[in-house]
Amino acid sequence: MTFEEYQSEASVTALYPRRMNNLEYPTLGLAGEAGEVANIVKKIQRDHAGVITDEVRGKLKDELGDVLWYISACADELGLTLQEVAEFNVNKLAKRHGR
Ligand SMILES: [Mg+2]
Questions:
Q1: Tell me, what CATH number does 69's domain have?
Q2: Which terminus in the chain has less CB density within 10 A, N or C?
Q3: 36 Cβ partners below 8 Å, 6+ apart?
Q4: Number of domains in the chain
């Protein structure tokens, strides 16, 4: 699956209020889902002695997907593609790395 295909399919499931320029909703959702990832990682230390079990890995896979969905929705709201966000990021990192 390409970023383009993902963004297209994800936007079909965007059921939040799609008024003009509703960047706030997906941004809040992104922060919430990032918090869910952080909470699971916290519990790796608390409950699993730092060991990432297959079950925990599966939960993180699920929550990282939720993060991706909200990133895609934020990109939609800004008129950006995930592809260009990804390309911009790797180019930025390459320049920084070359410093
Ligand atoms: Mg979630």
A1: 1.10.287.1080
A2: C
A3: 63, 66
A4: 1
At residue 17, does pLDDT exceed 90? no
Q: How far is the CA of 98 from the centre of ligand 1 (A)?
A: 36
Q: pLDDT per residue over 53-69, tens digit each?
A: 999 999 999 999 999 99
Ligand 1 ion local residues (Cβ < 5 A): 33, 36, 63, 66
The two three-digit tokens of residue 81, written as one number:
């593609």
Distance CA(68)–CA(33), nearest Å, equals 9
> How many angstroms does the Cα of residue 85 sit away from the middle of ligand 1?
22
Indicate if the pLDDT at residue 30 is higher than 90: yes
- Judged against a pLDDT cut of 80, whether residue 3 lies above it is answered with yes
